[in-house]
Please model this.
Amino acid sequence: MSLPAFSAITELFKPITWFPPMWAFACGVVASGASLQGKWLLAVVGLLLAGPFVCATSQAVNDWFDRHVDAINEPQRPIPSGRMPGRWGLYISIAWTVVSVLVATFLGPWGFGAALLGLALAWAYSAPPFRLKENGWWGNAACGISYEGIAWATGAAVMAGGLMPDGRSLSLALLYSIGTHGIMTLNDFKAVKGDREMGVRSLPVQLGEQNAAGVACWIMGLPQAVVILMLFAWGKPAHASAIFVLLVVQLAMMDHFLASVSKRALWYSGFGVPLFVSGMMVSAFALRGLITAVPAGVTT
Model:
């Protein structure tokens, strides 16, 4: 059996997709309020685990179990194109899962447990018998939890010395996980033809493209509105106002997107989603300010 080229392996791992979980982990680090002094290595290992390991594994697993759908939607991908020959896609998925688990051991119980949960969701998302991605409601929820919630909570816990993250930090992680469900729906628009033919019930397939786009916008927008209210309640009006401005710009872009869904889904993903994730970091800095402002020994 011929070996796959290094370029094909790199493409299988899709480095461009590593950014969301790495960003969420960084948000958790910031929100923890902990100093990076003496913890730089933990932060770097955590970022690598979130992106080049766990996320890369999820991409390889997805491409292997989606190879028949990709042969319709994106035949140029490594597996359907033949550049990833035989069962190498599966072998690499298994091997990188094992490597990810080994790397996770350096992050203590929280990091290790989070990695196991993220990897389990990665396999459940794509592989039978669960194959959560066959229903857009469940599959997108799994991605949102993995890419944002687990990564954020792990960053906060690791930097806090393995302690349970602040409840406010967990609340923000949950809200942005919910919002990411909408982002994942945007990603489904490019695969509607193949999904419909292969029985993958993404939201655009289930609801129709126009309705799915509207649902995605609501799911992205409402959690951000709740974050804004929470930040005002926590006495962080400047941060809340910044996210409000980001949300208003998103709403204007959503209106443009909804006017021509099939043509502008990729456009909105490229220009609207960065505003969403920018708000994540703003909220993380707001929480950092709250935590670091509390004198040592005082609980909130």
Residues 40-65 form the longest helix (26 residues). Residues 91 and 223 are 39 Å apart (CA to CA). Residues 8-292 form one domain. The radius of gyration is 20 Å.
